[in-house]
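To the wet lab folks,

You asked to see what we're planning to order before we commit. Fair enough. Below is the target structure as tokens, and below that is the sequence we designed to fit it. If anything looks off to you, flag it before the synthesis order goes out.
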């Protein structure tokens, strides 16, 4: 088969082979660290913590850390503090002139932004670590599990280890990006999510087997594959804007490109913002429950309603607000990440134009209009996939752990990162004149 031949070609390229080996090795280190429990905690008494975090928001966070959160691991915080810091820095870049200046300085500016993100990551870890440790008893960890008690020594050592674990995970991600096949941080998240997939499926299948519903398992798998296909379509879908480039003449001028110019396309992605709107919305969805459980709303009717409805990951009000936030954030993130003005300027400088549209401002307005038109169906489709686990739970009584893989952040991250990784490998193959993993058609002659 052509795909198998392409896999063989991967190992023929020494640089690509070494990068894949480095990536797998670093991912193995990350997964090993996720199994190491914090010193002073009895790992055999963490069953209650695992049961508490099975499903709901806790289950989602546990999936992002590859189960490390439920194991009170040294990597319990995972890479999420770094993701949070990156989002904060990116949002601040809209309002803070200093960060805007750094964004325009190229590689040197990006290096400074990365340094700022790292320091902010440490600050977030210093806040989240003691909060996580203090919440362990309420999450089902018995007092006997703390072998050395919960005094200042325990907190100091555990906070130090959790912060160090997050920084080490961040370092692993950056090394995978530099020395591996790229997308290091995203790969760490994806591997963590995939690590919880087999257990979630087995638990759900066991329940189905007890009820003699074997066919229902097969039906769920069919739906799962259909949702994966829909997610791939969402990630890959583009609107092609036809572009023509003027042909240079022997006299040094340019001919009118209506007939003789080369024709190309500007690919505008249906979902240009990726999974970032879901991550933004997911972060906001923690707020109503916190508001309901604190301040003057605590123990009031409104406060209890907020805590009850926004703690249920598969509830109606949670998913309604979640979907609306995703649509809003999709427009917001697309607006700040798709520079239509810069695209129009670059097109004009290269002698290109969109047929029927004047170069410059009119081209920028046209591109912005097209982006607005395709962002609406893209955002609605993204929101539907994000809330689909709630439909699966309500209509088919699927277990909460397995339901998280029927859409939402988990599935979209898996699909998006897998496609990006394949594209990275594909580019290596094509540069060496091999057939790519994602290319069909005429075979190329391999160069030994």
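Sequence we intend to order:
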């Amino acid at each position: 088969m052509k795909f198998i031949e392409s896999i063989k070609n991967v190992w023929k390229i020494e640089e690509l082979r070494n990068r894949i080996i480095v990536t797998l090795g670093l991912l193995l280190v990350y997964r090993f660290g996720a199994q190491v429990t914090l010193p002073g905690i009895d790992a055999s008494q963490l069953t209650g913590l695992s049961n508490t975090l099975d499903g709901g928001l806790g289950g989602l966070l546990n999936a992002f850390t590859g189960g490390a959160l439920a194991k009170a691991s040294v990597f319990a915080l995972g890479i999420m503090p770094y993701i949070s810091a990156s989002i904060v820095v990116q949002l601040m870049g809209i309002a803070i002139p200093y960060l805007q200046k750094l964004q325009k300085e190229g590689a040197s500016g990006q290096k400074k932004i990365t340094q700022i993100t790292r320091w902010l990551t440490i600050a977030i870890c210093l806040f989240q670590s003691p909060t996580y440790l203090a919440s362990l008893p309420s999450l089902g960890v018995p007092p006997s599990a703390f072998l050395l008690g919960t005094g200042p020594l325990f907190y100091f050592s555990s906070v130090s280890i959790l912060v160090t674990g997050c920084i080490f995970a961040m370092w692993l991600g950056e090394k995978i990006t530099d020395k591996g096949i790229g997308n290091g941080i995203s790969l760490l998240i994806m591997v963590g999510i995939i690590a919880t997939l087999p257990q979630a499926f087995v638990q759900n299948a066991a329940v189905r087997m007890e009820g003699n519903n074997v066919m229902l398992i097969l039906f769920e798998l069919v739906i799962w594959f259909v949702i994966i296909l829909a997610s791939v379509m969402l990630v890959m879908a583009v609107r092609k804007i036809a572009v023509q480039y003027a042909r240079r003449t022997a006299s040094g001028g340019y001919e009118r490109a209506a007939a003789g110019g080369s024709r190309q396309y500007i690919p505008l992605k249906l979902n240009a913002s990726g999974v970032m709107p879901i991550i933004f919305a997911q972060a906001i969805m923690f707020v109503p429950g916190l508001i309901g459980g604190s301040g003057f709303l605590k123990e009031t009717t409104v406060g209890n309603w907020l805590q009850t409805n926004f703690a249920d990951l598969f509830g109606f009000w949670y998913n309604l607000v979640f979907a609306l936030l995703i649509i809003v954030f999709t427009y917001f993130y697309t607006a700040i990440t798709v520079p239509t003005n810069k695209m129009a300027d670059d097109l004009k400088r290269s002698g290109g134009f969109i047929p029927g549209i004047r170069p410059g401002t009119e081209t920028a307005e046209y591109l912005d209009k097209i982006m607005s038109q395709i962002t609406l169906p893209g955002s609605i489709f993204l929101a539907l996939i994000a809330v689909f686990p709630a439909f699966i739970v309500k209509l088919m009584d699927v277990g909460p752990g397995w339901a998280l893989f029927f859409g939402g952040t988990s599935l979209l991250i898996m699909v998006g990162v897998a496609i990006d990784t394949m594209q990275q490998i594909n580019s290596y193959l094509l540069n060496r004149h091999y057939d790519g993993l994602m290319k069909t058609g005429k075979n190329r002659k391999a160069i030994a």
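Structural context that might help your review: The first strand starts at residue 238 and ends at 245. The beta strands are 238-245, 262-269, 352-353.

Thanks,
Computational group
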